[in-house]
Amino acid sequence: MSAKVRKLPLVLGLLALVATPLATRLLVHGDMPDTWGTFPPPKSPDVPGFSWLVFGLGVALALGILEFLRAPQRFGFAPVEAAPEARARAGRFPPWCVPGVLLAMASWALMWGELPEAFAPLVPFSFVPLWWGFILALDGVVYSRTGGVSLVSRRPWATLAIAATSCVCWYFFEYLNYFTRSNWYYPNDAIFSQCGYLVWFGLAFTTVLPSIFVVYQLLTTIAPLRARFERGPQIELSRAAVRRLLWLGVASLAALVLWPAPLFPLLWLSPLLVLTAAVSLAGAWTPFSAIRRGNWAPVILIGLATALNYLVGEMWNFYSTPQNPNFWKYDVPYVSVLHVYEMPLLGYFGYLPFGMLCWVWWIHHANLFGLDPAIDVVAGAGPTLTRREDA
Question: Which stretches are transmembrane (predicted)?
Fold first, then answer.
């Protein structure tokens, strides 16, 4: 951790994230939501139905995002130069890659009920090995493409720290979900006891950040894709502007609790504003720091990686058996149409800011506890992995 990083803004930012929804709810309503304390959270009975106006606005925004990804030059990005890029020769796969593939494939078949009946008692426990098998397998692909650089190979202890941070991160969203009419819920809620769900879901949540990061690392090894977003508009905010964004994030988080249905997109945007501003004020690097030089690749590729990661995850979820306790469904206000698996089509665009937040969440926790937050395997995007392992 850099000596210039100050911990007080990190602590205050985290406190703001936790305290704002709680204080807003108690000050305005004087009590907690009806579902408070029930885990996993049940389906909300009063989610608003479809709205053509909100859906139309969402479609317009989605089309704008797609056009940006298709033709960034129309938004001020320089054309990609055709100069060849030197990179490490692709090498062998590491020892954990094939076992990861086998673990993922076996768990996938188990979750979908494709194995003999004798394996049925294992079905409720298939989620965690499926995702960790996927993470190990993809980390092996990154290792091969970079000539031996990957998170597991270079910083195995940091991988465990990211997993622990991932658990805390997603439990925060489960906490926030209580205040926002349960935009998602888990209908298979009678398999474990409530304590069992808390423990098992804690293990399941360790997979969120590592899976996103390994897909991001894979995307950064695709040189033309990375170069596509490396020469864009340069934007630098003053500390005063960052402070205003912090307060905007806190205010919007409070507003989300007051009007959870019309402001439901803020579930992903408000925490991103608060935590990114706090990390920036602390003096630490974030994916948005690269935009000062016109390099938008970290921000865009982490968002794309998250959408791709959970397109696969939504598929696994949709076809899982009724014995999967991790199965989830959505009750998204106003736009719950055109589903791709369980997720409404427009919901996939919410994965873009969510991925950015996941990265900032790890950077926040790493700096708070004195760890090296680097995850990049390719120089030029962000702080890169070193050859030393964490002590």
Answer: 49-69, 93-112, 118-144, 156-173, 197-219, 240-261, 267-288, 295-312, 345-363
Q: CA 173, 179, 184, 185 torsion: positive or negative?
A: positive
Q: Which has the closest alpha carbon to 264: 273, 252, 275?
A: 252
Kindly report the length of the chain. Answer: 391
Question: Number of helices and strands (H, E) in the chain?
Answer: 13, 4
Is 375 part of any domain?
no
Q: How far apart are CA 210 and CA 197, in angstroms?
A: 21
Handedness of CA 355, 184, 132, 204 (dihedral sign): positive
Q: Which domain holds residue 225?
A: 7-78+92-368
**pTM flag (> 0.85):** yes
pLDDT of residue 135: 98
Do 263 and 256 touch, CB atoms closer than 8 A?
yes
Q: Would you state the pLDDT for residue 87? A: 52
pLDDT, residue 386, reads 59
CB neighbours of residue 228 within 10 Å: 20
Decide: 214 and 142 in contact? Cβ < 8 Å. yes
Pairwise CA distance, residues 339 & 336, whole Å: 7
Find, among 359, 344, 362, the residue nearest to 306 by Cα.
Answer: 359
What is the reported pLDDT for 391? 28
CA distances to 42, 195, 244, 261, 293 from 240, in Å: 41, 45, 6, 31, 20
Q: Please report whether residue 222 resides in a domain.
A: yes
385 domain-assigned: no
Q: Which residues of the chain have pLDDT under 50?
A: 1-2, 387-391
Helix (H, G, I), strand (E, B) or coil at 328: coil
- Residue 87 in any domain: the answer is no
Structurally, the chain folds into a number of domains equal to 1
